[in-house]
Design a protein that fits this description.
The complex is a heterodimer of chains A (about 230) and B (about 120). Chain A has about 230 residues and is α/β, with parallel strands linked by helices. Helices cover about 35% and strands about 30% of the residues of chain A. Chain A contains eight helices and eleven strands. By secondary structure, chain B is an alpha+beta fold. The chains are: A alpha/beta (about 230), B alpha+beta (about 120).
Chain lengths: ~230, ~120
């Protein structure tokens, strides 16, 4: 079974030739300002708007209001079936307690799944934030179990990960290596400087069981939202 | 060999543990009813609710199971949330008019359902 995501972004079919298998876990990586959150949120809202399904977007980096402000400034509108969860209240009220945020995120997913049995899409913004707040002990196992949990729940998942620093230094951190091995797909977003100035790009580095383009394609944003244009050579 | 008195004590202890296990499961599965029941009495934040249910029922509802329920009930218009005056650390939830009606009905129906289940088991 596949999830019909190809039509959620204008031009996505230029780089994705098949639909992605349901329950895939996809990393969306890139430097800051490369539209990682915007791309994922846009795909999810457009998918939910066209299907009688629910989605869950968990944000650790911002609260719901600032995330929505940010998305609105990109021309991306909120969609009723897409639930946004932030940890602000929990973290403020439980300041003195140590929260296992990976386990808590799994519980949050289960709670929404209990409420909406047609919850099919999940996003975490971001894995970096999750690591920075979580205890490092046994993180490899925790991440492995977290990925397994997402697959068991049959959620097509987007895990956002800022990767600029590790790419610049030429090596991924140990956690980043694990995610790349475990994920079914990796979408990289970035910026490239050419004759016409700086351009944003999108490139699918890996997508299991799905035919896709290998080239970098230009990514733009206008009043109609996010668009994928032709390849950048 | 244990004496029969010790065996009975073991059995009672097991029975208590077993009973606690069922209560635990019932409350966790139906936490929405217990949370709304607590909110019938006063407005509370997520932290207060977890503490209240723990002290009343001896069951710890984890944060990841409580806050999503608060947010979805708020989204459905059954709860109203506001930050306490001078304390932006805790968001207090109270039942809206429709939330109060739903809560009262759910608590009543839930109690009836438990009675029915109990009768069914005694047959």
């Amino acid at each position: 079974m596949s999830i019909m995501l190809k039509n959620t972004i204008n031009g996505l079919d230029k780089i994705l030739f098949d639909e992605i298998p349901k329950g895939s876990v996809i990393l969306v990586t890139g430097a800051e300002g490369t539209l990682k959150s915007g791309l994922v949120f846009s795909m999810m809202t457009n998918y939910i708007a066209a299907h009688d399904e629910h989605g869950l977007y968990v944000t650790l980096e911002q609260n719901v209001e600032s995330h929505l402000r940010n998305m609105n400034s990109l021309g991306i509108k909120e969609e009723g079936g897409l639930h946004i969860f932030d940890y602000r209240d929990m973290r403020l009220e439980w300041m003195d307690s140590e929260l296992d945020l990976i386990k808590t995120t799994e519980e949050v997913i289960d709670s929404y799944k209990e409420k909406y049995n047609n919850l099919t899409l999940f996003a975490l913004d971001s894995l970096n934030a999750l690591y920075s707040i979580s205890e490092n002990g046994n993180m490899r196992n925790k991440i492995y179990n977290f990925f397994s949990h997402l697959r068991d729940e049959d959620l097509t998942s987007f895990l956002i990960m800022e990767s600029a620093q590790s790419r610049i230094s030429g090596q991924f951190s140990q956690f980043h290596q694990i995610e790349h091995f475990l994920a079914d797909g990796t979408i990289e977003l970035g910026m490239i400087e050419g004759k016409g100035g700086v351009k944003r790009y999108i490139q699918i580095l890996k997508m299991r069981a799905t035919k896709h383009a290998m080239e970098k394609h230009q990514l733009t944003i206008n009043d109609n939202g996010i668009n994928i244009l032709g390849p950048i050579y | 060999m244990k004496t029969s008195v010790e065996n009975v004590a073991d059995l009672c202890e097991f029975s208590e543990d077993n009973c606690k296990k069922f209560v635990d499961r019932i409350i966790k599965t139906n936490r929405e009813v217990f949370m709304m029941s607590s909110l019938l009495e006063k407005q509370m934040c997520g932290y207060d609710l977890i503490k209240e249910i723990f002290s009343r029922c001896d069951v710890f509802l984890s944060q990841g199971t409580v806050y999503p329920v608060l947010y979805t009930l708020e989204g459905e218009g059954l709860l109203h949330a506001e930050y306490s005056k001078g304390d932006m650390r805790s968001k207090k939830y109270s039942l809206t008019l429709s939330g109060r009606k739903v809560a009262e009905k759910d608590v009543e129906d839930f109690a009836k359902a438990l009675e029915q289940v109990s009768l069914l088991l005694k047959r």
